[in-house]
Amino acid sequence: MQLDKQIKQKRSLGALRKANKTKPRSPDLTGQMKLQRHTAAAIVDQFGHDDIEEVVCNLAGWRNQDRGGPYLTVELSPRFVARTQVEGDDIIDSIINDNEEDER
Fold first, then answer.
1. Fewest CB within a 10 Å sphere: which of 26, 30, 76, 102?
2. 75 SS3 class
3. Distance of CA 45 to CAs 26, 33, 50, 98, Å?
4. What pLDDT, on the 0 to 100 scale, is given for residue 6?
5. Under 8 Å CB-to-CB from 26, ≥6 apart: which residues?
6. Interior/surface letters 15-54, b for 16+ CB within 10 angstroms, e for the rest
7. Alpha-carbon span 86 to 91, nearest angstrom
8. Which tens digits make up the pLDDT trace of 49-102?
9. DSSP letter string over 8-53?
10. What's the pLDDT score for residue 86?
């Protein structure tokens, strides 16, 4: 059994198909998306970092076809935000300093 093997999370995927336009401003494509909890949580977390009103997300699309005809598979994902790297000594210092404060 491999303990370091990560569990692959499901992606937030949906499908867009050509829509029957009833009005000039009707959408060209319509569909649904299955938004996964981890994707929504990451997006909500980004709202909490600053007092922001919008979050930029990534969209990707693939052309497909099935018995229902052509469609686009779309994926929604949170925008990648690089984490600041903590130096090894900083981790040790923070552990030691936290322990010293607890002992006081």
1. 102
2. strand
3. 33, 20, 10, 26
4. 56
5. 19
6. bbeeeeeeeeeeeeeeeeeeebeebeebbeebeeeeeeee
7. 7
8. 878 899 999 999 999 999 999 999 999 999 876 665 555 556 566 666 665 545
9. PPPPEEEEEEE---SSTTS-SEEEEEE--HHHHHHHHHHHTTTT-S
10. 52
Instruction: Say how far apart CA 28 and CA 70 lie, in whole Å.
Output: 13
pLDDT of 1 reads: 47
Residues 17 and 68 sit within 8 Å (Cβ to Cβ): yes
Residue 36 has pLDDT above 80, yes or no: yes
Is residue 44 within 8 Å of residue 52, measured between CB atoms? no
Length of the chain measured in residues: 104
* Residue 83 to residue 42: CA distance in whole angstroms: 13
pLDDT-based confidence at residue 8 (cuts at 50, 70, 90): confident
Query: How buried is residue 14: exposed, middle or buried, by Cβ count under 10 Å (0-12/13-18/19+)?
Result: middle
Q: What is the three-class DSSP state of 103?
A: helix
